[in-house]
Design a protein that fits this description.
heterodimer, A: 492 residues, alpha/beta, Amidase signature (AS) enzymes, 13% strand, globular, B: 99 residues, mainly alpha
Chain lengths: 492, 99
Amino acid sequence: MANPTDLTLAQLRDALKAKELTSLEATDAYLACIENAGDLNAFITVTADKARASAKASDAKLAKGEGGPLEGVSLGIKDLFCTEETLTTAGSHILDGFHPKYESTVTSQLWRDGAVCLGKLNLDEFAMGSSNETSYYGPVVNPWRANGSDAKLTPGGSSGGSSASVAAKLCAAATATDTGGSIRQPASLTGTVGVKPTYGRVSRWGIVAFASSLDQAGPLTRDVRDAAVMLKSMAGHDEKDSTSVNRPVPDYEASLGQSVKGLRIGVPKEYRIDGMPAEIETLWQSGIEWMKDAGCEIVDISLPMTKYALPVYYIVAPAEASSNLARYDGVKFGHRAKDYTDILSMYENTRAEGFGDEVKRRILIGTYVLSAGYYDAYYLRAQKVRKRIFDEFTDAFGKVDLILTPSAPSAAFELGAKMNDPVQMYLNDVFTVTANLAGLPGASVPAGLDKDGLPLGLQLLAKPFDEETMFKGMYALEQAAGFDAKPDEWWG
Amino acid sequence: MSIDKDTVRKVARLARIAEPEERLEPLAAEISGILGWIEQLNEVDIDGVEAMASTVDMELPMREDTLQAGPTGGGQAENVTANAPKSEDNFFVVPKVVE
């Protein structure tokens, strides 16, 4: 038997069903890997005892030939999902000691289907960041390093713990969330697969809110099949989320390997940006050739509103965040300042101590753009430009079935490199943020390595609720790219 | 548009975040930089365009106005206050607000 941590989630699932190994063996192997990978700082909390107990329960079911579609497989959970009685931090000091009394809908569905929780994964504070450096618990380190260098690189953000732990095989798969690119950019920077579903496909209930009209949860996995398996369990209607859409969840795994012949693939010229490494352009061209070879029709399209997507995002997201984060006041949960003279100074000191610099900056921007006198000039204008971006995609999807672009404008960069320039950091999400504003599904698939041996991803966007076509395309890309590079295990 | 130190002070007060005096100037510079970059939105023609708050094209679902079962239901003051930094008899405890 191979090392259980070398198996993909789907392989592990099948091996468990075939009784080739037990969930406890796999879970113990993962816990050992996690213990050995402290250098990566991927986990905030490891729930070893709980993991072993649920692995044993899964083994009892598997022994009787019973169990759900994920029975016994070991997952990492981004620490933005509330988990009952298990510390949930959102990467923030302000949620110190928060042990939710309820379970998020997504995680409860994963446990319903038999999955085992290994622990909670590090992230940018409140998912605000593109490098995992804003976490109160310190940055996550990418398992990948540039050839001949031992410089520490970012695993992307905000789902940096998710991407690093999947790339370093510390879990079979992970949950993640994506508000502007926080699943797809980390996937691109770590050679993993990340899927942001259509807005409304996955319930947001029990996920710590950042920007409610943009947030959507999805899987981060080693390959496309694993993402299909995970999404099936994560998706579905939930009455507790009023934006959750009531329509059946397809069997995404069944889409894999279906012919992509005749699919129309849109290639938007505006996704060619200044300063983008030539390798990314070359890889994109390879992607176009691969899809053409698979029988797709390539269609040049134009999305001229693309350049305005990030500025729109940096009004809408901080505005929504400033409202959502008003609940952290030192009264209901988490941290409360020790020094204060009255209730106002208690709020102000609690929030000053509890939030990090990036979160404060965004709350201030959000408060400013929503304040009297500026609302129309900033917030209302941004919502109108958002509508134009949405309309542009609706028109484009009248002509094409999928859109192919690079996932991120660069490979993994060094920790610290962009922390002093917020706008440079924000540009990481230039290719991903449009899908959040328009509510579209998007995915990153690893497609190649750059000159330094670092992974690069390609992104596919699809029509709302057409994840099945997206998975078909993702599988075709994966087959053609044949990406099988792995990071050298330098940690531990 | 660039914003000054006094505006940052005012916004920080609205946001209930204590920002020390020496942080106001650097924050004004940082936020002005970001707002300056955002200003490119002024190039876009938005005449007659409706503002978009949600991408989901559906009516807000309605339900009977009755107590729900489970974590969103009632009768669980203990759970609601369990994570409070300070609580007493299932009440949140805060500094005195009425003299």
